[in-house]
Fold this protein.
Amino acid sequence: MPPREPFPELDELVASMGEAGARISEIDASEAGAGNISLYLGWDLELRHRFPQREEVELPLPAPSLAGHTVLVTGSGRRRRQIAGDPLAVPHLLPPVPAHPSTVAGFAGLARALAADRAGWAPLVRYDATTRWYHRLRTGPGYEVWLLSWVPGQGSGPHDHGPSSGVLTVLDGELTERSPSGVRALGAGAQRVFAPGYAHEVVNDALEPAVSLHVYFPGLTEMPMRPPHALACTPAHRDAPSLRTSSLG
């Protein structure tokens, strides 16, 4: 059966592969939970934001039906039970976070490390019912980190981030993200990675304030507003704790 739109995003596919691997391991369907999981995609998918490095690999046998398409394969030697959920959320599978990251995985790791240092960001947070509050927490070669607060009802408006990629991490409370692929409820610990030009809207639809951490690489130079119809959405689902403008989002 051919796939139907809207197609899943890369992060959802990676998380699903991890969940499938964990289940296979739980029911002892593979020896010691080892092996690989492969997923063939019959549609175009942006991979650079998660897998920036590219390498050509010669297949042992011709596979003309795969030409021009994408196959996701879990890393050789990783036990399936070790990749449950989002593999990038498993600290012992990742290299140490460098002082100044240069890859998507490194920036995601930096965001997690800063989020874990609650004493470093919690005393800085302020809440303002009249305007969005944000504070630049850190800068480095080619990136910047922002701390944002959201009182109930505050939102970013539909926008993209120009040439910047980014990592959004929810520190406290719950936020709602609306994008062309759907609506997500992001609880504390949830993380979203996006490529240049990615359009979304972030809103606090909850009854309690929220705090989020945003890493942009390169640092923000523009955040163009988008018309509301640019974010035509599919039904909501939940992510687990896996402008000419003056506001950030």
The CA atoms of residues 182 and 233 lie 4 Å apart. Confidence is low (pLDDT under 50) at residues 76-94, 234-238, 240-247. The radius of gyration is 19 Å. The chain has two domains: 10-93, 104-239.
